[in-house]
Amino acid sequence: MNIQEKTLIGDFVAHDFRTAAIFTKYGIDFCCKGQRTIDEVCAKENINEANLLHDLNAVLATKNDSEIDFNSWSLDLLIDYIEKIHHRFVEEKTPIILQFLDKLCSVHGSNHPELFKITELFKDCTDELTPHMKKEEMILFPFVKEMIDATKSHGSIGQPHFETVKNPIAAMMNEHEHEGERFRTIASLTNNYTPPEDACETYRVTYAMLQEFEQDLHKHIHLESNILFPKAKALEKFFSNEE
Predict the structure, then answer these.
(1) In sequence order, what are the beta bridge partners of 37?
(2) Strand partners, 8
């Protein structure tokens, strides 16, 4: 990959997900705010650009045998992966984490009032994620698959009720931003998921699960915002140019 100051952060992570760890190290949001350039984010957040580029080059210069190259996947395969891995993860983990958070509030809330705010934020997040994922599964993803099928059959696509794929994508991106902000607040309230000294085992497990949920959400949003959505818009543009 040719690294330049004007390269988008999301493009780095789309090319090699190992760079996500570097951006996290520097406190740079690569999923919800991946459409910023290296020089832009360094100037805004007072980050040493030379050090950041050095660390990125070091990662990209090493051979990567373990990380999946999602950027090379077909869009229909990527959609299936997002639904079966990330959407299912949210559906399965949400009730467990909520149960544990409610228990922590009941037992430890008097000494750790921040638990009530953490629980409120997590509930707000999951309340928004559930309809968000359903909109993707029922509206956006089927249309993307329709375009893929039309490409394979050299057919045409109909006019969607949302006019252009850019409209639901803009809505999804906005919702991604909201969830990213919520989890940044949760991470701050939990001291980056560090349990207090008086934490019981349930406390430790809950914080570990919250951290796992955030990490999965980051990858989930990255796959959509930095790979799926740009390619879906490009595919729609291909059909509009054919007409």
Answers:
(1) 8
(2) 37
